[in-house]
Write a structure and sequence with these properties.
Radius of gyration: 15 Å
Helix content: over 70%
Strand order of the largest sheet: 1-2
Largest sheet: 2 strands, antiparallel
Distance between the termini: 10 Å
Length: 134
């Protein structure tokens, strides 16, 4: 991780990143407790880590990383994302958007607000995403 990414990640944690990562972790724990939610829990835990340290990483479709389609990127992934959207995705996305609006009020918070907007999109459709270094 570059020094700039490290500095941005430290500021990110102080300016709301920790709370949103905690939201992702809570969603993952709830999904894991239900047992049938384990596929969503895996995606949620990986995105919780990404939400904690978003600078220097990016989320890409898994098929671009592996070069082939799998369960998470095919029709079952679509169904999984729809179920996720109904049960957890909308409120995580709403949390990211509210935080983005609050951060965008200040000039210093604009890059962090933009990162929250990107995470809001991921919150709506997380299955089939892979977190890779930028």
């Amino acid at each position: 991780m570059s020094p700039v990414s490290l500095l941005l990640n430290i500021l990110w944690i102080a300016l709301g990143g920790f709370w949103m990562a905690a939201g992702w972790a809570i969603a993952a724990i709830i999904m894991a407790i239900t047992i049938i939610g384990l596929p969503w829990a895996r995606a949620s835990f990986s995105i919780a880590a990404y939400t904690l340290f978003p600078f220097g990483q990016m989320a890409v479709p898994r098929e671009t990383v592996t070069g082939r389609e799998d369960v998470g990127t095919g029709p079952l992934g679509l169904l999984g994302n729809i179920i996720w959207l109904v049960f957890a995705g909308w409120w995580l996305a709403l949390g990211h958007l509210i935080t983005a609006v609050l951060l965008a009020v200040t000039i210093v918070g604009i890059p962090f607000a933009w990162a929250h907007v990107k995470l809001a999109g991921i919150a709506l459709w997380p299955i089939g995403k892979e977190i890779v270094p930028a």
